[in-house]
Design a protein that fits this description.
Largest sheet: 8 strands, parallel
Order of helices and strands: HEHEHEHEHEHEHEHEH
Radius of gyration: 17 Å
Strand content: 15-25%
Strand order of the largest sheet: 7-6-5-4-3-2-1-8
Bound molecules: pyridoxal-5'-phosphate
Helix content: 40-55%
Number of strands: 8
């Protein structure tokens, strides 16, 4: 199947309320344009430099999603145009995004990244840290915390993946009662998005199932 066919098949299978972020990291602009020409506008990248380079080359109505770990000293490069930052994992980073958003006279939408996986290596906040940041959110007038993001453990154990996603969904629902601006629950990638959708996800981040396997050289 071509990229276009894989995209259209996936897109057609999704419920209307689910936003698909096409994760284009490592892929060339030609590949992105194939999906863009189907009418798709939400694309995800995990590296600042790569996102900036693609932003400069591609149509300006693309909504760029930063999904990878973000260093505070790099926020300034994406602050003028980024659509949604999924990976806020500290209050320090939130503060920097707020500062750069102000300089650009923007309000930047962000998600708090919650650590739900067993792996040590995945970035993210625990529930209590996320609760504390939400409590302080009023201090940062140029960011809007629009939701939460999580990544499940990379495993074949579907029960474990389901448990991790449902624990985040439960926390999301609970926080929503106090913070109604929380509307987005970003969970699910190529291998686990069907499980994520069963457990309350309304935004999925899919790369290889659209663009094919990534080759890292
Ligand atoms: C790479 C990446 C994805 C997409 O992964 P695929 O398995 O290719 O769908 C989703 N989310 C994050 C945070 C990523 O880094």
């Amino acid at each position: 199947m071509t990229i276009r066919e894989k995209y259209l098949k996936l897109k057609e299978s999704l419920p209307e309320n689910v936003t698909l972020v096409a994760v284009s990291k490592t892929k060339p602009v030609e590949d992105i344009l194939q999906v863009y020409e189907c009418g798709h506008r939400d694309f995800g990248e995990n590296k600042v430099q790569e996102m900036v380079a693609k932003y400069e080359q591609l149509p300006k109505d693309i909504r760029w999603h930063m999904i990878g770990h973000l260093q505070t000293n790099k926020v300034k490069y994406i602050a003028p145009f980024v659509h949604l930052i999924h990976s806020v994992d500290s209050e320090k980073l939130l503060k920097e995004i707020d500062k750069r958003a102000k300089q650009n006279r923007r309000i930047i939408d962000v998600l708090l990244q919650i650590h739900i996986a067993q792996e040590e290596t995945k970035f993210g906040l625990d529930f209590q840290e996320a609760g504390n940041i939400l409590n302080n959110a009023a201090l940062y007038s140029n960011v809007k915390i629009s939701g939460l993001m999580g990544m499940a453990t990379y495993t074949n154990d579907e029960n474990q993946i389901a448990n991790e996603f449902s624990s985040l969904h439960r926390f999301f629902k609970q926080m929503q009662t106090t913070y109604p601006s929380l509307q987005i629950l970003s969970m699910g990638m190529s291998n686990d998005y069907p499980i994520a959708l069963k457990h309350g996800s309304n935004m999925i981040r899919v790369g290889s199932a659209i663009f094919g396997e990534r080759k890292y050289t």
